[in-house]
Amino acid sequence: QVDVAAMAQLFGYVDVTDTGFIVAVLSITFNPLFWNVVARWEHKTRALSRVFGSPRTACYCLGAVILVLNCVRSHCFTEAMKSQPKLEGWDYHWTYYSGLAISAVGTLFVVSSFLALGFTGTFLGDYFGILMEAKVTSFPFSILDNPMYWGSTAIYLGWALM
């Protein structure tokens, strides 16, 4: 026997039929699926490296596509948040500033991860045969295993609160 009361309560706060919500969910789902499928395909076939003339150029092009897709995802998320019902009990300054703080911590993790890994380290260079000289263990990897993912999640959580 499954208690669906919690889900029923959640759906009172989320309009899952809203077009913006559906587009945001599809965008959020599509992005990692796309870049993982393309990276694994590249790893098996080296097709992008051949098309672009080098693994580095191909990696930079995929990275640029990922960045554009992330901008689209962020836009879709923002538009979905604007059209969703608001939690009346959370419409306070402390909620906004909590969201701002959570987003700031997330941004710290994402930016410091990028700086530690570099462009090809961040954007799947290992699938193109572009390997780091050594495992990165400096901040933020010294405190989290996946700081880029945790940071992105924190950014979107903070954004939702704001």
TrEMBL record:
UniProt gene name: Pemt
Protein name (database record): phosphatidyl-N-methylethanolamine N-methyltransferase
Entry keywords, A to Z: Endoplasmic reticulum, Lipid biosynthesis, Lipid metabolism, Membrane, Methyltransferase, Phospholipid biosynthesis, Phospholipid metabolism, S-adenosyl-L-methionine, Transferase, Transmembrane, Transmembrane helix
Compartment annotation: Endoplasmic reticulum membrane
Gene source species: Menura novaehollandiae (superb lyrebird)
Molecular function terms from GO: phosphatidyl-N-methylethanolamine N-methyltransferase activity; phosphatidylethanolamine N-methyltransferase activity
Superkingdom of this protein's organism: Eukaryota
UniProt pathway annotation: Lipid metabolism; Phospholipid metabolism; phosphatidylcholine biosynthesis
Keyword rRNA processing: no
